[in-house]
Write a structure and sequence with these properties.
The complex is a heterodimer of chains A (436) and B (245). Chain A is α/β, with parallel strands linked by helices and 436 residues long. In chain A, 31% of the residues lie in helices and 23% in strands. Chain A folds into 2 domains: 1-327, ANL, N-terminal domain (Rossmann fold); 331-435, GMP Synthetase, Chain A, domain 3 (2-Layer Sandwich), CATH 3.30.300.30. Helix content of chain B is 38%, strand content 26%. In chain B, α3 runs parallel beside α6. The radius of gyration of chain B is 18 Å and the shape is globular. The chains are: A alpha/beta (436), B alpha/beta (245).
């Protein structure tokens, strides 16, 4: 079993917990000292850093939420002066204000190593040619994988997303051996290859590193079957780090969390109580080493469970099960988060009237597609066809511009959307992988 | 090898350690850096049993040692070379060294101790040269070598060094630190080092902890600490102001 960073990845449970305690105490102390947001939160909870005397004491600390990050936009939660920050990433801001994350030089070094660990565990070596078809924008995905691949010494081809024909040509001509992208994009590539008569079996591809959105075992089987590769899952979250938080080893029985850098908890998203190993709940992460943008008990919104038994690969780093769904009503389509609340704000008419609506996500020909149903009521539009058409046109444009995703809006008759017990289910996810 | 978990300790009403966690792996050189009064010496004294912890645990190979007496702790393989050298000025160099073997007098034979004495004198040829001289006549650097040599006579697996270069000229400091490195490399002794000169300590250590007002504020490999802005500003003398743009 390939292991990149043996000292760290082969630590025994007791050693991991000791290091976590040391780093937790240090990060709580630093946050309290340098980030006014945390200092206030601790004061409100009548806590000082000295109250953290064991790992279990972490449950006394307040949670940090996405809303907290937005309230601190852009730099309010940085723990170092901006001059120490050497990189800034942020979310797309599709749901309001973006969340901004800063990295110091040490943070970038650690990030590279953590991505190298998960990629090496997935089978990437210095002999590989890694094609990175994640968006090289302000997002974390492409850069994380890019740095990890370079750290391993692999050859990196930063193709970014899109231009599928060119991607395929590069796979063929540059003899790409490892492909990093979203699973949906991998399926798209496979389709396109089939269309243009390229036999995937003739390419050099052997490993796929997929992340950025939830994907099922059946999608995995489909990708492996169509591209003749081994498809490996990894987990990252941009507010916490980006890719590099956890990844699958050869055993593929869960994703090993890099526990020397992150402390993971599982909570019940409704009651907020801590759940034991093996029970599914919301993943909560605390960064243990980050200098620029440390997070304490960040609620990821992702549903998973933990397993701290030793893995057959030799690692004792806890494993999280693959993430298939979210704690809130967010859906992830092609790596983009969609929140109903945000969609709602876009649907509202200029007069401020909100029609009944439903968001439907489907997988059509291996591509995730989003459809938006809107009920036209007389009260809303009377019989002004011109206004109605204008609204419809504008809506699709705004949705595309604000969410970064093409959404088909369909105007339907009143009461056309089925009611369940009098209320409308706002999101219907018909993709096979999202059966929560 | 050695694990310290949330240890609290103090002197009377003063709490010098407010829950410090720390560990050393076998064969590592770990350094503690921090301002005066941060709790570095107290931490070493708590490990060696000279100061009693009021809470927390200290485990040596997973066996608790925080309830043991200092002599018992030495017999467990932890030996401390105290701040300010503390050699017995009127005794000869050799007698000072033999004193270091005192905690194991009952368990070791005369021949074994003589053998170890020879070994220590080999490590520090200057001590052999002057072994009949009274320790008070040695220079500061030589006294420090003697203090370290004396700690080695207890045959420690872990050596706790409290500011071994205090008050020494830079050239002597470099020599002492080279010796410390050699003890680890050649003798396999695990070392915890407190050093006023953070840059020098980080140049020979594998990992470090930054202590601040009785707590650990940072832990990391030395490369990481050297790159950390707070460490650079506060301990490495890169005198720039904090600027919030």
């Amino acid at each position: 079993m390939p292991i990149f960073d043996k000292d760290a990845e082969l630590m025994k449970r007791g050693e991991i917990r000791q290091l976590q305690l040391e780093r937790l105490q240090a990060i709580v102390f630093r946050c309290h000292k340098s980030v006014s947001f945390y200092r206030k939160k601790f004061e409100n909870a009548a806590l000082t850093p000295d109250d953290i005397q064991s790992l279990d004491d972490i449950s006394r600390l307040p949670f940090t939420t996405k809303a907290d990050l937005r309230d601190s936009y852009p730099y309010g939660m940085f723990a170092v002066p901006l001059r120490e920050i050497v990189r800034i990433h942020s979310s797309s801001g599709a749901t309001g204000l973006p969340t901004v994350v800063g990295y110091t030089r040490n943070d970038l070094k650690n990030w590279s190593v953590l991505c190298a660990r998960i990629m090496f565990a997935a089978g990437v070596t210095a002999d590989d040619v890694v094609q990175i078809a994640f968006d090289y924008g302000i997002f974390t995905g492409a850069f994380g994988i890019h740095q990890g691949a370079e750290r391993i010494g692999a050859s990196v081809i930063p193709t970014s997303v899109g231009n599928t024909d060119r991607q395929i040509k590069i796979i063929q001509d540059y003899k790409t051996t490892a492909l990093a992208c979203t699973p949906a994009y991998a399926l798209g590539l496979a389709e396109k290859m089939a269309e243009s008569g390229v036999d995937p079996n003739t390419t050099s591809l052997k490993i796929g590193l997929f992340g950025g959105e939830p994907w099922s075992e059946s999608t995995r089987a489909k990708i492996e079957d169509k591209l003749f590769i081994r498809a490996m899952d990894n987990y990252g979250i941009s507010e916490v780090l980006g890719p590099g938080v956890a990844g699958e080893c050869e055993a593929r029985s869960g994703l090993h969390i890099n526990e020397d850098h992150f402390y993971a908890e599982i909570i019940n998203p409704d009651t907020l109580e801590k759940l034991p190993d093996g029970v599914e709940g919301e993943l909560v992460l605390t960064t243990l080493t980050k200098e620029g943008f440390p997070l304490i008990r960040y609620r990821t919104g992702d549903i998973t469970k933990l397993n701290t038994e030793k893995c057959s690969c030799g690692r004792e780093l806890a494993r999280m099960s693959r993430v298939f769904c979210r704690a809130d009503d967010t859906i992830i389509v092609r790596g983009i988060n969609i929140y109903p609340a945000r969609v709602e704000s876009l649907i509202k008419t200029p007069e401020g009237i909100l029609p009944e609506y439903q968001i439907i996500v489907e997988n059509v020909d291996s591509q995730d597609q989003v459809q938006l149903l809107i009920e036209v009521t007389e009260e809303l539009f009377l019989d002004e066809m011109r206004r109605l058409r204008e609204y419809h046109l504008n809506l699709e444009k705004t949705l595309k511009a604000s969410l970064g995703l093409a959404i088909k809006a369909k105007l339907v008759e009143p009461k056309a959307i089925p009611r369940e017990g009098g209320s409308i289910k706002r999101i219907v996810d018909r993709r096979s992988n999202n059966s929560c | 090898m050695l694990k310290v978990k949330s240890v609290r300790a103090g002197y009377g009403a003063i709490r010098a350690l407010k829950g410090v966690s720390f560990h050393v792996n076998e064969g590592e050189i770990v350094t503690l850096i921090g301002a005066n009064g941060a709790g570095k010496s107290t931490l070493l004294n708590t490990i060696s049993g000279l100061v009693r912890s009021t809470a927390g645990e200290i485990l040596l190979r997973d066996k608790p040692i925080h309830k043991m007496t200092p002599a018992q702790i030495v017999r467990q393989g932890i030996s401390q070379s105290p701040e300010g050298r503390q050699v017995f000025a009127s005794l000869s160099v050799r007698d000072n060294l033999i004193l270091g073997a005192y905690p194991r007098m009952r368990s070791s034979t005369r021949a074994e101790i003589a053998q170890d004495l020879e070994h220590v004198e080999q490590l520090f040829p200057i001590l052999k040269e002057r072994d009949r001289q009274s320790a008070g006549t040695l220079s500061g650097g030589e006294q420090q070598m003697l203090a370290i040599g004396r700690s080695l006579m207890a045959k420690p697996r872990i050596l706790l060094l409290d500011e071994p270069t205090m008050g020494l000229a830079p050239i002597i400091t470099a020599e002492i630190l080279k010796t410390v490195r050699r003890l680890r490399d050649e003798e396999g002794v695990t070392i915890v080092l407190i050093e006023q000169n953070a840059r020098a300590a980080l140049s020979i250590a594998d990992r470090g902890y930054v202590l601040e007002t009785g707590r650990v504020s940072l832990e990391g490999k030395v490369e990481e600490l050297l790159e950390n802005s707070e460490v650079k500003r506060a301990y490495l003398g890169k005198g720039y102001k904090e600027v919030w743009e």
